[in-house]
Design brief:
Number of helices: 9
Distance between the termini: 46 Å
Structural class: alpha/beta
Largest sheet: 5 strands, parallel
Order of helices and strands: HHEHEHEEHEHHHH
Strand content: 5-15%
Strand order of the largest sheet: 3-2-1-4-5
Shape: globular
């Protein structure tokens, strides 16, 4: 099952995965309609990165996550928020009540879901006429570091099929017409990230396809990631 792809990765995921742009969060509250009174189901919530940002704005959030390791990290990190409820559920069976939430958010996880079953679950738990918001941090595929990073992952990681980046729909880029019945809009917000070497290595190791420390090629993989980081960092500083 897809949730097992992140077994044992809760700590590294929580530490190295980026949050989402402040402008995007503000947009949800000023344009989309989310408010402090809103009840949100953050599905596939992982270690609670987006969940935290919604809680900080005052909303009530169900963090729905099937992976126990990821869910435990979220519960530890977010237990001070009164509006947070941790739920052991998945996209196709959230376990929460019918017509119980105002909004559904999915950060970095939609491409793991069974679209048809998730769509039915959204229809079940959403209040009438409310919204589903799909969110991804995506890479700049023209960036030299991203290009070199792709090649290293392709060389060492057997499960690497390319950077999914989420925005690729069922058939074409940004094609979610089957899920939204043709009624949706796409918004893009800049989220420029600056990594030191430790953060760059950690971001790679937090991916589902990354080698684990007991893999025979793990040290070679990490050393090559360090190499491309050093080379490109030096080039950029010339």
């Amino acid at each position: 099952m897809n949730e097992n792809k992140f077994n044992g990765m809760g700590k590294i995921y929580s530490k190295y995965r980026p949050s989402y742009p402040f402008d995007f969060i503000d947009y949800l509250f000023t344009d989309v309609g989310i408010s402090q009174r809103s009840i949100i189901a953050d599905i596939g919530s992982g270690t609670g990165i987006l969940t935290r940002q919604l809680l900080e704005k005052g909303s009530k959030v169900y963090g729905i996550e099937p992976n126990a390791d990821m869910r435990d990290i979220a519960e530890t990190n977010l237990n001070n928020f009164l509006g947070f409820t941790s739920v052991n559920g998945n996209a196709e069976n959230t376990t929460i009540d019918d017509n119980s939430v105002d909004y559904i958010t999915v950060a970095q996880a939609f491409h793991w879901f069974d679209r048809e079953r998730f769509k039915k679950e959204c229809q079940r738990i959403l209040k009438p006429e409310e919204k589903v918001i799909l969110v991804w941090n995506i890479r700049d595929n023209n960036n030299e570091l991203v290009i070199e990073n792709y090649e290293v992952n392709r060389k060492y990681c057997p499960n690497f099929k390319g950077f999914s980046d989420g925005m690729y729909g069922k058939t074409n880029k940004d094609d979610f017409s089957d899920f939204f019945n043709g009624k949706y809009e796409t918004k893009v917000f800049p989220n420029n990230l600056i990594f030191d070497m430790d953060e760059f290595i950690g971001r790679n190791l937090s991916s589902s396809y990354a080698l684990k420390s007991n893999d025979s090629q793990y040290n070679n993989y990490v050393n090559e990631l360090k190499k491309i980081y050093k080379n490109i960092a030096i080039t950029d500083n010339l």
